[in-house]
Write a structure and sequence with these properties.
single chain; 679 residues; alpha/beta; Leucine-rich repeat, LRR (right-handed beta-alpha superhelix); 21-stranded parallel β-sheet; 11 helices; binds 2-acetamido-2-deoxy-beta-D-glucopyranose
């Protein structure tokens, strides 16, 4: 008879078998189903990098997308592409020079064709006739094909709904109205890196949908009459442009981004009065070579010459060609790597919405911003003409020769957040000299000494003073300036006075004092309760200051100092928050590495531990031994310091146990004896 347990067992077995069968069955079904679906979706095929010399035969007629790029196809004959559903075809990076006339007849739906990097400068007539049958083309890339003006024109025949066109890297020299005459609905045209020296009037004007025009890396020298009302982004970077002039006709322009970087501009571009310009890239030009006054008057007369206007229309006495900047909603201007020796305050202060101004790599020495000619304020005195930069938040002044930024100037930046003064010669003022009874004292003292007052700039959050040759940071230098990030790196031999960082205790999150040749005693930090990142690399510090246990550091860089060890309890405290620690370039003691264990325990990353060196007992520096210290030290050290090993511990435990057992047995015996004695 079968016992109940056996019955249950057999039942369970049966069930499992059944379940398995049904599952595998459904799996098989599932497979066939997905297989079919997969078949259905064979709409995309990639044949890239297959060394193909012709279009493969027998392609699925339902194909919608075909990638044949990076092969060695030279010829497409009229039978090879019978793919009526094809929407996208990529033939870039082949050796295509012959496209038979009917080759594209059976891909009439094609919307995107990429022919970049082929040899389409050959057989232009027949090739272009082949392309002529693609009436639905929206995107065409014929960059890098060695095309000249006439060839490009032929390839653009009959492209009435073309939207995006790429002609980069060809040999176009002169753009004429014929070029786009049959592709009038393009929205984006890229003709970078050609040899264009002239653009005839009427070339782009009829392209009413044109939004993006990229003519970077050509040979244009002037833009005498910019008239493209419709274009939003115009890229003229890396030409040889000396001036950019818009003849004012009151028409509104859509222009939002203008890139004139890497040209030969002497003047600011003369942009249309009514525009939407937000980003102006003028880096690497020669603006600022002329003094501001000369610049403005020369620009004025240039404009008159070109437009043959004798009088500037709205003849307010002190208005000039740049007065209409007041209407410009510019938020970003890059003037880095130009030739400014002084700040063109009057011109720039028209830009009331400017948020970011980059003036790095110029020759600015002094932004004194005292009485300015043309200003509307009083002479002398300390009442300033009301020139301000009300929206400016990011000011990059790195790599100039700046010694001074006057308090007036800093006060004209009511919303400044980030000030980059890296690589200048700025001396922070001693606030003690500034706390005079009245504003007047403060000002006169300030203008006498050439120092910059970083005191009481309530909006400033990030300040970079790296590499300024600063010798002393006085007490309270940053008081009432709630900095979040401060870079004091590469000010060799800087002395931080006691209380130099006073006022930053609860705001500062990132501090660098790297490369200052600082000794431990020169390093007097307060308790910085918000500090997350501290970089004290490249100094002469031999003890990590214990005050940093105040800070919830997540990143600490102590590379290249004179550390031999780290205080264990300090490391214990730090490793609660620490994510990353950099330690290489110190000569740690190979045998004093308890700090390392604490860090390992808390899984703190030490990316450069392999490169860290330690000093062994016999006085040699060893690389890579730090993590293997115990192994190493136990061989070298006298037994007194050596930690007992496992064998010794076991022997001791065994010994103690035997002694204890003997003792217990003995006591028991004695007690029992006593007990029986009583009984
Ligand atoms: C590509 O194909 C040609 C012949 O068609 C052959 O000579 C060549 O070795 C092939 N190259 C590679 C990388 O397979
Ligand atoms: C303009 O073109 C240059 C060169 O290709 C490119 O580096 C730059 O980013 C472009 N500018 C804009 C604003 O897109
Ligand atoms: C300013 O320009 C310099 C040099 O071109 C660049 O390195 C820096 O990142 C720019 N600064 C800003 C805030 O864009
Ligand atoms: C204004 O600044 C110039 C230097 O740019 C200086 O020579 C001149 O003395 C200053 N004027 C006043 C009133 O401080
Ligand atoms: C760094 O400081 C030491 C004294 O602490 C001095 O001897 C050395 O010259 C300094 N190095 C530099 C580069 O200033
Ligand atoms: C610390 O500063 C040095 C010198 O500026 C820099 O090379 C290093 O990357 C910085 N460390 C970290 C963690 O950013
Ligand atoms: C380690 O730091 C703790 C406080 O963080 C301090 O009490 C102790 O004296 C330090 N030990 C050494 C050896 O400096
Ligand atoms: C010092 O010890 C290391 C590691 O044990 C050894 O490789 C090295 O030869 C020793 N150097 C001297 C000078 O004894
Ligand atoms: C240190 O120990 C690890 C394993 O714990 C080993 O892979 C590595 O080779 C050792 N390094 C040296 C320099 O002995």
């Amino acid at each position: 008879m079968i016992r109940p347990t056996e019955t249950t067992f057999s039942l369970v077995l049966l069930l499992v078998l059944l379940l398995y069968c049904s599952l595998s069955h459904s799996l098989i079904q599932f497979n066939t189903v997905t297989g079919r679906i997969h078949d259905d979706q064979q709409e995309t095929t990639s044949w890239r990098f297959r060394n193909l010399s012709s279009v493969p035969e027998g392609l699925d007629v339902r194909l919608r997308e075909l990638d044949l790029s990076n092969n060695v196809i030279r010829h497409i004959n009229s039978q090879s592409l019978g793919l009526p559903s094809l929407l996208r075809l990529d033939l870039s990076y082949n050796q295509l020079e012959i496209i038979s006339e009917g080759a594209f007849r059976d891909v009439a739906q094609l919307q995107e064709l990429n022919l970049a990097r082929n040899a389409l400068s050959h057989n232009v007539d027949s090739n272009s006739r082949a392309l002529g049958s693609l009436h639905r083309l929206r995107r065409l890339d014929i960059s890098m094909n060695g095309l000249d003006d006439d060839a490009a024109e032929l390839y653009l025949r009959d492209k009435s709904i073309l939207e995006r066109l790429d002609l980069t890297g060809n040999g176009l020299t002169r753009l004429t109205p014929k070029l786009f005459a049959e592709s009038l609905s393009v929205t984006s045209v890229r003709i970078e890196n050609n040899l264009i020296t002239a653009i005839e009037e009427g070339t782009f004007e009829p392209l009413k949908e044109l939004k993006i025009l990229n003519l970077a890396r050509n040979n244009l020298v002037y833009i005498c009459d910019f008239k493209l009302y419709q274009v939003k982004l115009l890229n003229l970077s890396r030409n040889s442009i000396e001036f950019f002039v818009t003849r004012e006709d009151g028409h509104p322009y859509e222009l939002e981004i203008l890139d004139l970087s890497f040209n030969n501009l002497l003047y600011f571009p003369m942009v249309p009065k009514t525009n939407r310009l937000r980003y102006l890239h003028l880096q690497s030009n020669m603006v600022g070579t002329l003094e501001t006054d000369t610049l403005i008057s020369e620009a004025d007369s240039l404009y008159r010459e070109l437009t043959s206007e004798d009088e500037v229309n709205d003849a307010a006495a002190n208005s000039n060609i740049y007065s209409n900047w007041r209407l410009m909603p510019l938020v970003y201007m890059d003037l880095s790597s130009n030739h400014f020796r002084s700040l063109p305050v009057e011109t720039l202060s028209h830009l009331t919405s400017l948020v970011t101004l980059n003036l790095s790599k110029n020759c600015l020495q002094d932004i004194s911003y005292n009485t300015t000619k043309g200003g509307s304020g009083h002479d002398g005195g300390y009442h300033r003409p009301s020139l301000t930069f009300p929206s400016l938040r990011y000011l990059d002044l790195q790599n100039n020769g700046l010694r001074q930024l006057s308090t007036f100037f800093l006060e004209a930046l009511p919303n400044i957040e980030t000030l980059n003064l890296k690589e200048n010669s700025v001396r922070p003022c001693d606030p003690k000299d500034q706390l005079g009874p009245s504003e007047t004292t403060r000002v006169s003292l300030n203008s006498m000494s050439s120092c910059v007052s970083f005191w009481n700039i309530k909006t400033l959050r990030s300040l970079d003073l790296q590499d300024n040759g600063i010798k002393t940071l006085h007490q309270n230098t940053f008081e009432r300036t709630p900095l979040v990030s401060l870079n004091l790196a590469s000010n060799v031999d800087i002395i931080l006075d006691n209380g130099a960082l006073e006022g930053l205790q609860s705001s500062l999150q990132s501090l660098s004092i790297s490369g200052n040749n600082m000794t431990t005693s020169a390093l007097s930090l307060p308790c910085l309760k918000a500090l997350r990142r501290l970089n004290m690399s490249n100094n002469n510090v031999d003890v990590v200051p214990s005050i940093i246990s105040c800070s919830p550091l997540t990143e600490l860089d102590v590379r290249n100092n004179g550390l031999t060890s780290m205080n264990e309890s300090l490391v214990d405290r730090l490793s609660l928050d620490l994510d990353v620690l950099y330690v290489s370039g110190n000569s740690f003691n190979c045998c004093d590495t308890k700090w390392l264990k604490a860090l390992n325990r808390e899984k703190v990353k030490i990316p450069d531990l392999d490169r860290a060196v330690c000093l062994s007992v016999n006085g040699t520096l060893l690389t890579g031994l730090l993590p293997n210290h115990s192994l190493h030290c136990s061989l070298e050290l006298s037994p007194k310091i050596t930690e007992p090993n496992l064998g010794q511990i076991i022997i001791i435990i065994l010994f103690v146990s035997i002694v204890l057992i003997t003792l217990v047995v003995f006591v028991k015996k004695v007690c029992c004896n006593t007990g029986s004695f009583i009984v």
